[in-house]
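REQUEST ID: PR-0412
SUBMITTED BY: lab tech R.K.
PRIORITY: routine
TASK: structure prediction, single protein chain
INPUT:
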Amino acid sequence: MLRKILGGASVFALTVSLSGISFAQTPAPQWSLITFSQIKPDFRMEYEAAQKELMAAYKKAGVASRIVVQTILGDLTEYTSIVPLGKYAELDGPGPTVKALGEAGSQRLLKKAGAYLNSVHRVTALAMPDISLEGPSPDAGEYAMVTTWRLYPGKGADFTAFMKDDYVPAMKKAEVANFWVSRPVFGGDLDERFTVRPMHKLAELDAGPLTLKALGADKARELGMKQSKIVESTHFRVVRIRPDLSLMPGPPPAK
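STATUS: complete
OUTPUT:
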């Protein structure tokens, strides 16, 4: 399920964490529209009720999916929604709530949902499937560790090479089936990268650093030194998918 969240390769096989349109034999960019919301703590129940109304409106408007995740380790007032974006032309014209409810109905619902927010920020993100891992199973789990990597300016190409040559092979050696990488573009910081490591249980965190498991102490230390020349800082959070607040995508077509 979490493959649909932040730009995993198969997310976009369906449609960038979600767009798998292809032109001839060249895959289209894999984009997603990601909205980060900080809610007023005293209005969690009301906010979630409004999200269910939004889910119904998106479904009525014919949107393929709208995934909502809740941060459970990190900012506990944070919810994130992810919608696949095939192309930017989809953002022209009326939005899903207007299509479903009309202008007046859309304004009422958005005003209602907005009353429970402290802040909201939206970005578009582009998947980076060349430095991601995609497992064969469609069930990636109910949780994910989401890491925001803050790069030193001008280190984007070095980060891509580091992930391809060093970090992703270590994840594969640690038997990680799914590890998805994306980068924010419009509305985001161009020196940041997002990675998503799905998990079935939080107990998976008990294994500790996966680079240590894969490489041993000495080589893991060498990897960390190489990373420190490219990455200024990292921020970790754990999220849980909320199917009750989400418009879940249908299963892929049978082959």
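NOTES: The two ends are 20 Å apart (CA to CA).
REVIEWED BY: pending
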